[in-house]
Amino acid sequence: MDSRDYHIKALTNIWTGDLNGNPDRTITTGLLGSVRWWCEVLVRGLGGCACDPTRDGNRCPDTEGKHCVVCELFGCTGWVRKFRFEILDADGKVKQAQITQNETFIFRFTPLRPIRNEEWALIDLTLRLIAEYGAIGGKTVYKPSDEQSRQDNPHHKDYGLIQIIKRPEISPVPKQILCGYVTDSRWRKPDHDGFAWASLTNFWCVKGRYLARQDSQKSTFNRVIGRPEPKRRPQSKDSQSQSKDSWLAGRRASRRQLAESKKVFSFKDPPRTFGFVEEANNLQNFLQSLQQNLQSDWQDFRDEEFKHGSKILASILDRD
Ligand SMILES: [Zn+2]
Predict the structure, then answer these.
(1) Is 306 helix (H, G, I), strand (E, B) or coil?
(2) How far apart are the CA of 66 and the centre of ligand 1, in A?
(3) Please, what is the average pLDDT of the chain?
(4) What DSSP string describes 104-131?
(5) Are residues 256 and 213 in the same domain?
(6) Cα 272 to averaged position of ligand 1 atoms, centre (Å)
(7) What pLDDT does 143 receive?
(8) Centroid of ligand 1 to alpha carbon of 164 (angstroms)
(9) How many Å lie between the centroid of ligand 1 and the Cα of residue 76?
(10) Residue ranges for the chain with pLDDT beneath 50
(11) 69 C-alpha to center of ligand 1: Å?
């Protein structure tokens, strides 16, 4: 079975990091985990269900051996991934060193079992979602992180923006067919408790703009996630600001001692800001709060620059 190659250019360095957080290497499983995470986001946005394999009690398979549509492709206990995933350098050699800015590299997907057109379409749309609106990286940066302090470290900020230079041939699959496929009754439908936000429906992106954690006096980033400026909080903070902060910025989950994901991400070069709202019907309110909070920083910021959910889905589905 033929492999399919995506030729990709790194617009920033790409962080994967090994178990010790060492950034000097490209860890294939780290990037594959990131691809999978965005595929889950896409599938939920298409109306399907996807387990969170990092959560005990949520991951597939269930007691009857059923798995979700994402595990069908990416694998889970008792069900092998349908493809081999390799990262190659421009010469076709296995990429071992860290991928750095302006480098080109290849994501190679080689089927190990038959892969349906719908599944290729999911892979393709996921990579376009990442390249055009998101970012890719080891989970310590872009996924729910165990290390809150690391997330807040500016050093880890501008990683993972990519551009697809050349895609393999993928048969386009109409949206209705894709939605039908991901919602098919054969798939397990795990609940999305606690991470329903991780859906394309709740996703937004503004290209060409960034939020800065400038200094202790001024941080547009903190303004957007509702943290008071300067970064050091005053003793008495109003509760509204506190609750907004805890969700968007991520907080220590009391039960499992794991930090929830940070929900707003911003990149300076090239500029891009994206995030997730807690509930999709809050998108308009969130846009308004962005406009209010960033009046002086995002000059002439227009509604159309705020892309979200269905618009983004339409734009990645439309392009060939
Ligand atoms: Zn699953």
Answers:
(1) strand
(2) 9
(3) 83
(4) EEEEEEEESS---HHHHHHHHHHHHHHH
(5) yes
(6) 30
(7) 32
(8) 27
(9) 7
(10) 139-152, 154-156, 231-237, 239-240, 252-260
(11) 7
